[in-house]
Design goal:
The protein is mostly beta strands. It is built from no helices and 11 strands. Strands 2, 4, 5, 6, 9, 10 and 11 form a 7-stranded mixed beta sheet that branches. The mean pLDDT is about 95.
C-alpha cells in the first residue's frame, strides 16, 4: 500500500491550494482517510478526516470553514482543498489511511502514511 501526496507549494496569505493523496496497492482498503500537518518546531497535528465512502467528515477547529476534505473512490484519491490560507498553515502535510472503522484524530490510529508535501504561506 502506498500513499502519494502532492499539490503543495508556496502561496500568499488568503490564497488557496488543493492537496491530493493517491492510494495504490492491490490490498489497499481503508475506512477513513486523514490529513495531518507538522509545522517547523511543532508536533504533528490533525487537520481533517473523511470516511472513504463519503458522508462523514471532521475538521480541526483551526481549519474549519477554510479547508474541505473529499474522497474520490473512482480515482482512489483524497483531496484537501485549502482556502483563506494563513501564515500558521505553513507545514508539511501528510495523508494517512485508517483500516479500522471510526473517525479518528490521533495519528496513532492510522495504518498507512504518505511522504508529505510542503505548504508555505508567505508574503
Amino acid at each position: 500500500v502506498q500513499l502519494q501526496a502532492s499539490g503543495g507549494g508556496s502561496v500568499q496569505p488568503g490564497g488557496s491550494l488543493r492537496l491530493s493523496c493517491a492510494a495504490s496497492g492491490r490490498s489497499f482498503k481503508a475506512y477513513a482517510m486523514g490529513w495531518f500537518r507538522q509545522a517547523p518546531g511543532k508536533e504533528r497535528e490533525f487537520v481533517a478526516v473523511t470516511k472513504w465512502s463519503g458522508g462523514m467528515t471532521y475538521y480541526a477547529e483551526s481549519v474549519k470553514g477554510r479547508f474541505t476534505i473529499a474522497a474520490d473512490n473512482a480515482k482512489n484519491t483524497v483531496y484537501l482543498q485549502m482556502s483563506s490560507l494563513e501564515f500558521e498553515d505553513t507545514a508539511v502535510y501528510s495523508c494517512a489511511a485508517r483500516r479500522a472503522s471510526g473517525i479518528a484524530t490521533m495519528a496513532e490510529s492510522y495504518d498507512y502514511w504518505g511522504q508529505g508535501t510542503l505548504v508555505t504561506v508567505s508574503s
